[in-house]
Amino acid sequence: EDKVVQSPLSLVVHEGDTVTLNCSYEVTNFRSLLWYKQEKKAPTFLFMLTSSGIEKKSGRLSSILDKKELFSILNITATQTGDSAVYLCAVEYSGGSNYKLTFGKGTLLTVNP
Amino acid sequence: DAGVIQSPRHEVTEMGQEVTLRCKPISGHDYLFWYRQTMMRGLELLIYFNNNVPIDDSGMPEDRFSAKMPNASFSTLKIQPSEPRDSAVYFCASSWTGPRADNEQFFGPGTRLTVL
Questions:
Q1: Structure confidence at residue B91 (pLDDT)
Q2: β-pairing, B74-79 with B19-24?
Q3: Which of B43, B55, B110 sits opposite A98 (nearest CB)?
Q4: Among the listed residues B17, B22, B21, B31, the one whose alpha carbon sits nearest the alpha carbon of residue B83
Q5: CA distance, residue B71 to nearest chain A CA (Å)
Q6: pLDDT band at B47 (very low <50, low <70, confident <90, very high)
């Protein structure tokens, strides 16, 4: 079954709106959670979260992790059309002695002018 | 640095043919990752290398898939024979000193593979 579940699958908003994207996970030996933005090409890194309750912030984007409830949220305030993209959540965990990285299916965000 | 370089950018082939995808990681990066992305399954890690050595290939779907890294600046992902269900975008990524939480992976532009 899916170890990383993102919601919603897609979202359409107007410029200036605030959006919250969700990522829940279920893995053992959790190490970190990562957020990526994917426009028409390769994913680009946004945030890496390892500790609960500590907000990471970059401009209008922010993210926080809850390791007790096993989820993370990505907030985007004052959205712009350039924020339109697929936002991917990935969870890093240990599988035996090896590193494992599992991505969610992503949330497609469309920001209309 | 030019970033991670992948070739070809697009590949269209017929079922049963051999396909070879190529990747040049960022110079100095010790780790190289191969991913596959489809609408149905999202982004999946196939295999990763450390200092040219394959560390974990548990994500490789089946024996038709193989990957090599003969030196620090080049890797290939080969599918033989290819099947229509292999159609996807294949990404290569690289990072410094290991797949740890504080090491950002830099993705290449991807190869869009279509198997007819």
A1: 97
A2: antiparallel
A3: B55
A4: B17
A5: 22
A6: very high
Structure tokens, A68: 């007790």
* Dihedral of the alpha carbons of B42, B91, A46, A100, in degrees to the nearest 10: 70
Other CB atoms within 10 A of residue A11 CB: 17
pLDDT value, residue B96: 83
Find the angle CA(B72)-CA(B73)-CA(B78) to the nearest 5 degrees. Answer: 100
Q: What is the pLDDT of residues B25-39, one digit of tens each?
A: 999 998 999 999 998
Q: Give the pair of three-digit tokens for residue B28.
A: 């100095």
Give the pLDDT of residue B77.
Answer: 98
Q: Choosing among A29, A91, A103, A107, which should be mutated to test the B contact, i.e. which has the most B CBs within 10 A? A: A103
Looking at the predicted structure, is the pLDDT value of residue A65 above 80? yes
* φ/ψ of residue A20, rounded to 5: -130, 120
With an 8 Å Cβ cutoff, the interface of chain A facing chain B consists of 31-32, 34, 41-45, 48, 50, 88, 90, 92, 95, 98-106
Give the pLDDT band (50/70/90) at residue A75: very high
CB contact under 8 A, A50 and B101: yes
Tally C-beta pairs within 8 A across A and B: 50
CB B76 within 8 A of CB B21: yes
Token pair 């010790």 is found at B30
Give me the amino acid identity at B109.
P
Residues with Cβ < 8 Å from A41, sequence gap 6 or more? Answer: B109, B110
